[in-house]
């Protein structure tokens, strides 16, 4: 009996402090506190293994990764218009997210996974609408 209690106590100490993955909600909105055509919140810092649930709050939006704005080895995801999508982020680094129909209007967000302080040097390189680039820059400055 004492051995069973000791084993149980050791297991609780070893695994009891482990952090459970969290789920964060992001609204896809026509209008919010930061303006028109936005994700709210517009940026997140999460831990590896956490999940982000993109809520189809207003119609006409989707959430998808920007392939050129992801860590090496990360899988691209594409949500359908007017549908919620849940994405688990297992790799550390910065991820650019967009609403495809409203990308030109600046409907973008940044998700930072883990402890990385800055994105890859080429994170903002490549062609993108000026309003989207401006919002990405503002979001990165918030980290």
Indicate the mean pLDDT. 89
The largest sheet has its strands arranged as: 2-1-4-6
Shape: globular
The tally of helices reads 2
* Uncertain spans: 2-18
**Largest sheet composition:** 4 strands, mixed
* Share in β-strands: 25-35%
Quaternary arrangement of the chains shown?
A: single chain
Structural class: alpha/beta
Describe how the helices and strands are arranged.
Layout: H1 2-16, E1 23-32, E2 35-40, E3 43-46, E4 50-55, E5 64-65, E6 85-89, E7 93-98, E8 108-113, H2 130-141
Parallel strand pairs: 1-4, 3-8
Antiparallel strand pairs: 1-2, 4-6, 5-7, 7-8
Question: How would you describe this structure in keywords?
Answer:
143 residues; alpha/beta; four-stranded mixed beta sheet; 2 helices; 8 strands; 19% helix; 31% strand; globular; disordered N terminus
Task: Describe the model.
- By secondary structure, the protein is an alpha/beta fold.
- It starts with a helix and ends with a helix.
- The relative contact order is 0.18.
């Amino acid at each position: 009996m004492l051995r069973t209690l000791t084993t149980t106590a050791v297991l609780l100490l070893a695994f009891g402090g482990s952090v459970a993955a969290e789920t964060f909600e992001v609204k896809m909105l026509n209008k919010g506190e930061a303006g028109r055509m936005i994700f709210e919140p517009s940026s997140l810092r999460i831990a590896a293994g956490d999940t982000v649930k993109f809520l189809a709050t207003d119609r006409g939006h989707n959430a998808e990764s920007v392939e050129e704005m992801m860590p090496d080895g990360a899988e691209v995801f594409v949500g359908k218009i007017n549908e919620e999508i849940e994405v688990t982020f297992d790799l550390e680094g910065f991820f650019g997210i967009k609403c495809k129909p409203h990308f030109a209007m600046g409907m973008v967000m940044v998700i930072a996974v883990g402890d990385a302080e800055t994105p890859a040097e080429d994170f903002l390189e490549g062609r993108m609408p000026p309003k989207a680039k401006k919002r990405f820059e503002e979001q990165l400055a918030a980290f």
